[in-house]
Amino acid sequence: MMQKTLFEKIWEAHLICHLDAERDLVFIDRHILQETTSASAFDGLKTTGRKVRHPGLSVATQDHMVSTEPHRDETSNPQGRELMQLMRLNSAATQITHFGLEDPRQGIAHVIAPELGLVLPGSIIACGDSHTSTAGGLGALGIGIGTSEVEHVLATQTLALRRPKTMRITFNGSLKPGVSAKDMVLYALGQFGIDCAAGHAIEYAGSAIRSLPIEARMTVCNMSIEFGARLGLIAPDEATMAYVAGRAYAPTCRLWEEALAHWQKLHGDADAIFARDFAVDAQTISPQVTWGTNQQEVIGIDQLVPDPSTCVDAASRERAHAALAYMGLQAGRPLEGLPVDVVFIGSCTNGRLSDLQAAADVAKGRKVAPGVRALVVPGSGAVKREAEAIGLDRIFRDAGFEWRSPGCSMCVSMNQDMVAPHQRCVATSNRNFENRQGPRARTHLLSPAMAAAAAVTGTIVDVRKLH
Amino acid sequence: MPSPFENYQGIAAPLGQVNINTDAIIPATYMRSASANLGAGLFARWRYEENGEPKTDFILNQTPYDRASILIAGANFGCGSSREAAVWALLRFGIRCVIAPSYADIFYENCFRNGLLPALVSPADLEIALTQSKVPHGGDFFIDLTRSRIFLPQGEEIEFSIPPMRRDALLRGDDDIATTLRHEEAMANFNIKDRQARPWIYAMENPP
Q1: Hey, what domains does chain A have and what are their CATH numbers?
Q2: What are the angstrom distances between the C-alpha of A42 and each of A100, B41, B179?
Q3: Contacts of B92 in chain A (CB under 8 A)
Q4: Cis peptide leading into B123, omega within 30 of 0?
Q5: Is B158 part of any domain?
Q6: B169: which chain A residues are within 8 Å (Cβ-Cβ)?
């Protein structure tokens, strides 16, 4: 019998029928909606007279455009008001549970879905946002979709998808102290490139992955899209089950027992073949910082900004020069010591409690350097409350960080949280694209601990030197 | 629901870079409203100076490319965010076909849902198309979806690949949801079996 990967087994369990040689119709277990990518989907339903097929399997949240001011409401970001209202009204009209700003469960879609038990091992979850792959941290397939596909899920609770090919990235060995899940994924992006996984589903494996706590696994899976993969996952284990148990929407009693028995059998076959198979020695990874304007343009903090003249062809040379010019950097120099203007700690990549804890460990007893604006934006209301319960907010406030309300904030900069032209921002988010955090803003991606270290020293620095 | 794709001819704009992401195609700040003029936001950061004046060195601000209906780009076009507004912005500007050697997965899917043709060409053919498009007023490209071919102004033709079912769907202007709903029986059968196999998935529909 053919050996199968975990991804293939989960896919087959959701297969309704083959549509053609390359596409399948698959069932979607959970659908999360957010305000920026759903309004036209509801319009489409109205125009065609179609109904939401399984409103009970969907929830909506507000994240991209919400203000992160402490006492915000729907009017705090006037430019987002229209789409936020539409999300609320469309949800009410279709009996979809909606977590508005007044709701304690509000937060970034990919942060609240796992913490509410909406992401279950072996399930498929869809959301109109490319970082839905975060769900892979719990052994689920998280699929980022466009707005027409949002409408398709609403109307049919299915997606017509090209069957992804299989791919594995194995992280052998163990991480050195001061190195995190974010560094693992950035390092792999530097090694394998931002389109190495186009058309593929990534499974992350190896001892360094298995020893990651659940929230760190979500950080790795979150950035699957940055490799070009629509989804990425990590096989569930006992830690996964312990994470899911007791969450608001997780099964209970008899159903929990039944689900648990099912999930404990969820694994890929030992000899399953992956169409692409990469390996990394986790030991060699140092804290990573992006120097350029996409995520494969990344180096260890102990390395020098690469020299474009070493590029293989003229096009990549030109591209590297452009990235250096945009970032205001010189080849052959270290990133360490570069002054920063803004520090952003948050996002669906690194906005969970353990991320804030890692940053707070560095910030504790220190002060944000003069002239630096440092924001901490919890990924959800729950993360914010838990952080406050253990005093992290005090550590950040005492150090001079802004303690904000949950949302996507400066990752996508659709609210007022923007970086000014030419300002240098270190960010725990996922995209260092030109102009993403604001016109001509310069973004360096790194881990929460590295971000906090930059905040308190005022420069990009190796966090291991601070301990 | 997209309108049926008809073969057409038009000006092709060369934008050869690889890895053009959706933040570049349509900056998020142009998506803050349901009624935003996305055509005006297409490649906004490359197209406009800070004061809103057009950047004269950007290809889509130059004659005749300001009337382009075809865009030629490098590999991994449309990477990054899932925003379908990237496709809408291209269409609103007047681009109905992109020519590139590869596309990011979500962008590629979003194209079909809106009747935008993502023509996949070989790297060698991409170079030929780029070279010919760079001759200003060099003539129109003719997009023949029926035969999966692009006829270049200087007489050559290049072939692009597109799965036959997707080509036919574009030519008909299929409503994807209607297509799926034709599988109603398979969906119902799946549901009956799945409720037995994984009852915990459906418990959420009937909260206590």
Answers
A1: 6-161 (3.30.499.10), 334-460 (3.30.499.10)
A2: 18, 23, 19
A3: none
A4: no
A5: yes
A6: none
- The continuous run of DSSP H or E covering A321 comes out as helix A314-327
Task: Establish if B168 belongs to a structural domain.
Answer: yes
pLDDT tens-digit series, residues B93-103? 999 999 999 99
In this predicted structure, the answer to whether residue B50 has a pLDDT above a threshold of 80 is: yes
Shortest CA distance to A131 belongs to which of B19, B81, B106? B81
Q: Using H for helix, E for strand and C for coil, what is the string for A138-167?
A: HCCEEEECCHHHHHHHHHHCEEEEECCEEE
Distance from CA of A209 to the nearest CA of B (A): 24
B3 in a structural domain: no
Q: Could you read off the pLDDT of A221-277 as tens digits, one per residue?
A: 999 999 999 999 999 999 999 999 999 999 999 999 999 999 999 999 999 999 999
pLDDT in tens, A173-190: 999 999 999 999 999 999
Fill in the amino acid letter for A110: H
Same domain, yes or no, for B97 and B65?
yes
For testing contact with chain B, the best of A97, A408, A435 (most B CBs within 10 A): A435
CA angle A36, A100, A82 (to 5 degrees): 45
Which among A354, A405, A417 has a CA at the least distance from the CA of A380?
A405
Residue A120 to residue B201, Cβ atoms within 8 A: yes
Residues B22, B28, B33, B39, Cα dihedral to 10°: -50
Size of interface A-B (CB pairs under 8 A): 181
Contact between A198 and B179 using a beta-carbon 8 Å cutoff: no
Chain A from 156 to 215: CB within 8 A of any B CB = 156, 158, 160-162, 164, 194-195, 198-199
Using a pLDDT cut of 70, give the percent of chain B over it: 100
Question: Is A467 touching B (CB cutoff 8 A)?
Answer: no
Per-residue pLDDT band for B33 (boundaries 50, 70, 90) equals: confident
Which helix (DSSP H) or strand (DSSP E) does residue A279 occupy?
strand A276-281
* Domain encompassing residue B193: 175-208
For residues B138, B140, B144 and B147, what is the CA-based torsion angle, rounded to 10 degrees? -20
Identify the bridge partners of residue B159 per DSSP, sorted by sequence position: B149
State the burial class of residue A465 (Cβ atoms within 10 Å of its Cβ: 0-12, 13-18, 19+).
Answer: exposed
How distant is the Cα of B75 from the closest Cα of chain A, in angstroms?
Answer: 9
pLDDT in tens, A111-132: 999 999 999 999 999 999 999 9
Using the Cβ of A49 and the Cβ atoms of chain B, whether some distance falls under 8 Å is answered with: no
Kindly identify which residue of chain B lies nearest to residue A125, measuring between CA atoms: B201
* Residue pLDDT, tens place only, A47-66: 999 999 999 999 999 999 99
Q: Tell if the CB–CB gap between A16 and B190 is shorter than 8 Å.
A: yes
Domain annotation covers residue B151: yes
Residues B113 and B23 in one domain: yes
Asked if the model's pLDDT at residue B1 lies above 90, the reply is no
The ipTM (two decimal places) reads 0.97
Q: Which two tokens stand for residue B182?
A: 């034709």
- Same domain? B125 vs B53: yes
Residue identified by tokens 């804290």 is A287
The predicted pLDDT at position A427 comes to 98
Beta strands in A291-361 (DSSP E): 298-300, 342-345
Q: Which two tokens stand for residue B145?
A: 């979806």
Residues of chain A found within 8 Å of residue B202, distances taken between Cβ atoms: 57
Closest residue on chain B to A411 (Cα): B28
Chain B CA closest to residue A226: B80
